[in-house]
Amino acid sequence: MTDPRPKLSWSDLAGARAGVWGLGREGHANLRKLLALGAEPVLVDDRPAGPVDGRPVLVTGDGGLAALQRCDVVVKTPGLSRYRPEVAHLSGLGIPVVGGLGLWLAEADLRRVLCVTGTKGKSTTSSLTGHLLVGLGYRCMVGGNIGAVPYDPDNAGDFDYWVIEVSSYQATDLPVSPPVVAVTSLHPDHLDWHGGVEQYYRDKLSACSQPGAELTVANGDSALLREHAALLGPRVEWVSEHDDPAATWTEPLGLPGRHNRRNALIARRCLAALGVPGAADDAALRAAASGYQPLPSRLTPVGTAGGVTFVDDSLSTNVLPTLAALDAFPGRRISLIVGGHDRGIDYAPLATGVVARDAPTYVLTLPDSGPRIRAQIEAAARSPAAPPALAPQTGFAGVTDCPDLAAAVAAGYRWAQPDGIVLLSPAAPSFGVFKDYRDRAEAFSRAVRALS
């Protein structure tokens, strides 16, 4: 069988008969790039939405796989698991199955590329790193899993640096690594795609150790990352939220929470590793940090009503960021809304964190994972290790299942009065009820407006 990460570049595909497997955002960029190279594209998708620019799109299970078998190379979209049997079948026939980001990295100037990965925090870290680079006077593209597709002809430009967010899906397609890679966190996720938790860890962290890797700047507060340090490449620099306690340059970023302070410190360490002038200058960094716009649905205030603040953290689809969200509001009374699509992840750490919180905390759960979360929280509250409530308005106050988001917002509002927070931080994806996390965030905002 051929190497699952063939060391091909986009230039190698000029004039080739190339399969474009998957027609999402990155798939359309793959098509544009292939057309610019004079390649002959063959379009295949599991569930085609119709022709693309007049070109037919074949269904994978109905003639599409057979068409891919007649290609010189197949460029797949990241959402298609590398562990699907069709991938193994194509590879067994000697047909390289590659990803667009890997093709780009194979011929990029890697000294000017930073890859950022992690279960959570990678988007914020990527965006603020790019913001700092621009503030320091450099032309920077922030792309990959977030923002622009770096090889898309529509995004052509002259850049000094590229900050590329890498998902666990994309990491399995990378044949090389840049010298500097950042890892913001590690927690079980996307287990259905990867086939298991340890495989997910290996795939997620593989971006740290492909040919070319020299340094990984990693979250030193993560016990899981330290346990998996052997997967972090030849050299690791650990960054903690407690580093540089006197530093104030992060204040203009306006990012709440100790985890975001650590994300900013990781960004700075990466800039220093890239040799960016100004990375060691607090005054220059503070000026560069000014004007940063936080990404949506990441601890984003969306309104107030009756003294209660409503915070949208809809992108928190895992336990780790939800615990960080609670930690971002120390001492505040919080109605926490959790639950969504049930991927079977372990909610015991969330339950432990909720029950251990000193400030008043009331949990409202949503289908489908809500009842399972409630059961975990109730078990944690009954545990002999659970701290006793000091007063009726102190500590864990209970958990209730709600039929939908609007009901949870209304119930959370009533309990959070007179000056608390209603926090949507679901620790679950939005699939099923909502199209995506943005759709869920919009529904949250509508429910808040209805209260007003």
Keywords summarizing the entry:
about 450 residues; alpha/beta; about 35% helix; 17 strands
Please give a quick description of this structure.
This protein has helices at residues 25-36, 64-68, 85-92, 100-105, 122-135, 168-171, 191-194, 197-205, 223-227, 258-273, 282-289, 319-327, 348-356, 370-382, 405-416, 437-451; strands spanning 17-21, 40-45, 57-59, 73-76, 97-99, 113-117, 140-144, 161-165, 180-183, 215-219, 236-239, 300-305, 308-312, 334-338, 361-365, 396-401, 421-424. By secondary structure, the chain is an alpha/beta fold.
What would you say this structure looks like, in words?
By secondary structure, the chain is α/β, with parallel strands linked by helices. 33% of the residues lie in helices and 18% in strands. The strands form 3 sheets. It has a 6-stranded parallel sheet with strand order 7-8-6-9-10-11, with helices on one face. Strands 12-13-17-14-15-16 form a 6-stranded mixed sheet, sandwiched between helices. A 5-stranded parallel sheet has the order 3-2-1-4-5. α13 links the parallel β14 and β15. The chain is globular and about 65 Å long. The mean pLDDT is 95.
Task: Give the overall pLDDT as a whole number.
Answer: 95
Give the spatial strand order of the biggest sheet: 7-8-6-9-10-11
How does the overall form come out from the CA principal axes? globular
Low-confidence stretches are none
> How much β-strand is present in the residues?
15-25%
Give the count of helical stretches.
Answer: 16
Q: List how many beta strands DSSP finds.
A: 17
**What quaternary form is this?**
single chain
- How big is the Rg? 23 Å
Helix share, percent:
25-40%
Distance from first to last alpha carbon: 62 Å
- How does the major sheet shape up? 6 strands, parallel
Structural class determined from secondary elements: alpha/beta
